[in-house]
Amino acid sequence: MAEIIDGKAIARDLDEKTKAELDALVAAGGPRPGLAVILVGQDPASEVYVRRKIKACEKVGIRSLERRLPAETSQEELLAVIAELNADPQVHGILCQVPLPAHIDTRTVLGAIDPDKDVDGFHPVNVGRLSTGTGGIVPCTPLGVMILLETVIDDFVGKDAVVIGKSNIVGKPVAMLLLERECTVVVTHIYTENLPEVARKADIIVAAAGAPGLVKGDWVKPGAVVIDVGITRIMGEDGKEKLVGDVAFDEVQHAKAVTPVPGGVGPMTIACLLHNTVQAAKAIAAGPVQDTSDPYADAPDRSLIYGAGEGASAD
Fold it and tell me: Is 282 a catalytic residue?
């Protein structure tokens, strides 16, 4: 039987570390980290996600600010709200919940958030810095994936990793983080030929395609580690709705370890959002880096995904 990677327990541990770091920051005279969440319209799933994030903030001591806007809000009005939050010294993290209404351009909105307050890690500046290993805020779900992998893999060097899905939110940043750990990474997508054969070679599989049950048992070699990022609500045989992932969970019990759905990656995403918010508050409080000769000078603390170290090597 595969080891079940308990995302809930690991997220609780991370929350405790985040709270301890926050308490130390405040005790030293630093600011109490503040997270602003913007919700445009009344998308039911977004409503649930926002409530969870606000509740999670309360648990670790982050000050939360919720800005709810009607669905008919114009793009200019939304950008004005973001500009206001960018300038607010009590706000250290800004999260704009997606999807946005069709008349608003998501890329424009996400690009308007101050990169230093972009705790989702979606701003082009943070994406670029992640890809070059020169700092930047790491997107929450990919960061969570790496922390989960750290619990079952001692040495990443030379491991074959297959990332199923090439989204900007998960697939691409996960691939870059695995490359930083010296894995050999293959990113697959809807047009990849012989996907089962590609997956069978992997020591690590990160499934993030949004396709329920895509990864079958014969796609996974014995001893592989499988991280299931997908989550889809389907109707079960009993007529009740249930959540399922991209991996046929019962078929991959010959793996070394696998994450469940729910209870795997999901809790880590929110825990990493809180972590990113505290890291952003610390960086903002410290002020601009004076010595710009070192491109890694303002790199965030990535000890969560590098064991005792604090970042990738410069090569």
Answer: no
